[in-house]
Specification:
Blueprint lengths: L9 E3 L4 E3 L6 E9 L3 H12 L4 E5 L14 E2 L8 H20 L3 E2 L3 E5 L2 H17 L4 E4 H7 L10 E5 L3 E3 L1 H16 L2 E4 L5 E3 L2 E3 L4 E9 L10 H5 L4 E10 L11 E3 L1 H4 L11 H11 L1 H5 L5 E4 L5 E4 L3 E2 L9 H11 L10 E11 L6 E6 L2 E5 L5 H16 L2
Parallel strand pairs: 3-4, 3-14, 4-11, 7-16, 14-22
Antiparallel strand pairs: 1-2, 5-10, 6-10, 7-9, 8-9, 12-13, 13-14, 15-18, 15-19, 15-20, 16-17, 17-18, 21-22
Helix pairs in contact: 1-5, 1-11, 2-11, 3-8
């Protein structure tokens, strides 16, 4: 470069961005979505199904947040009766539609809450008795009928289980990696990975290298409270939840888990069971006998990936400042508990990790309107896989009514 000359031009025609002496070229879409986790993808799907041109921005090379760090469970049984359960079931139906179209593996094999103590059985029986009137599809199974549905439960001391046919398992890592390609190829959704949205000032959405003109925007940035609309999110009441999880090696041969499994600790965790009069006694016994499980809000869930690994967990730590280090104590407690009911061939742990999601103390999810034609959709409180497609369908219908 000779003295006095400006920097050389760098042109990238494939995404219509020009650097150097010329400004970035403007691109157009009807809707911009910030975030390619399951909430962002669900909104992109709902909007593209309506014929809208959608662009999704993701700051990372691929989604790496809570959406890929979970059990992959669509879990309607955990949602309280009424609107939230109905929303979960609507989301489940859309999930099946998407998975079938994308030819992605899933297991619609339901779930079993296995019980080994009398107070656990009391809650499970009571819920099975009252659940039809609340809209749930559940049944109490005695020990023999439980074992006929699952060979993965230990029979010693088993009293029975709460059976629900509505739960679905997907492999979150595989699914979140494949869905962007499906949405692009089938519905024309544009993706900009490695492009963090710096500002939204409609009709302009700007990243470090792109400028788009859009009519509406949706922010699905998970537990990132600092990048977009930080003042609003700081006063919203949101906090972060860290959960620790484990994954085994692939199980040998053709061994399959069958229904997703959990046990007595889970009965005290999900809000659906708060209608049970027997629940306080169960909670009191757990608090007295094993307070360490309450300290870390541990319960035992087991799901299986497409490759045969078992995903085990989880725990819950609350606070805006997340400890980046996992606690061995928590992993040991989870394994100790799950080992009391899970009869799997190989519980050798191959991977350990943690995930972080946003949660509001009062609302099951949060939709904020920071500016005209802009929505922030966040905080499904650990039920993102269960609720996202239902929430997205409602949000897009409301925005484009």
């Amino acid at each position: 470069m000779r003295a006095g000359e400006g920097p050389p031009l760098l042109r990238r025609s494939h995404d219509s961005v020009t650097y150097g002496l010329y400004p970035k070229l403007m691109q157009r879409a009807d809707l911009a979505v910030a975030g390619s986790g399951i909430m962002g993808l669900a909104h992109a799907y709902a909007a593209a199904k309506q014929g809208l041109k959608v662009v999704v921005f993701e700051r990372s090379p691929r989604a790496s947040g809570a959406s890929v760090r979970n059990f992959g469970l669509i879990w309607p049984i955990g949602q309280p009766h009424g609107r939230m359960y109905e929303l979960a079931m609507r989301s489940r139906a859309i999930w099946i539609e998407v998975l079938e179209q994308a030819r992605l593996p899933y297991r619609a094999e339901g779930s079993l809450h296995a019980v080994y103590r009398d107070d656990e059985a009391a809650v499970a029986r009571e819920f099975a008795e009252i659940s039809p009137g609340l809209g749930f599809d559940c049944a109490w199974l005695d020990a023999d009928r439980t074992l006929s549905r699952s060979h993965a439960l230990k029979p010693a001391g088993l009293l029975g289980s709460l059976w629900s046919p509505t739960e679905v398992t997907v492999d979150p890592r595989l699914t979140l990696r494949a869905l962007p390609d499906f949405l692009h190829e089938r519905l024309g959704v544009e993706f900009r990975f490695g492009h963090a949205v710096r500002a939204i000032d409609l009709h302009i959405v700007e990243t470090g290298t792109d400028r788009w003109t859009v009519n509406q925007a949706i922010v699905c940035s998970g537990d990132d409270f600092e990048t977009l609309y930080p003042e609003l999110l700081r006063t919203s009441g949101l906090t972060r939840v860290k959960l620790q999880m484990l994954r085994t090696r692939p199980q040998p041969g053709k061994w399959r888990l069958g229904p997703a499994l959990c046990a007595g600790l889970t009965l005290r965790f999900y809000k659906s069971f708060q209608v049970c009069e027997a629940l306080p006694a169960l909670r009191e016994r757990i608090a007295n006998e094993t307070p360490e499980y309450d300290r870390w809000e541990i319960h035992g869930l087991v799901s299986q990936t497409a490759e045969g690994e078992l995903t085990l967990g989880d725990s819950h730590e609350y606070g805006e400042a997340v400890d980046i280090f996992n606690k061995e104590e928590i992993d040991c407690l989870m394994l100790r508990y799950i080992s009391t009911f899970l009869a799997a061939p190989d519980l050798s742990i191959a991977q350990r990790w943690h995930g972080v999601y946003a949660k509001h103390p009062e609302h099951p999810f949060l939709i904020l309107k920071p500016a005209p034609n802009v929505r922030i959709v966040t905080s499904p409180g650990g039920a993102g896989m269960t609720l996202s497609f239902g929430i997205a369908a409602e949000t897009i219908a409301d925005m484009y009514a």
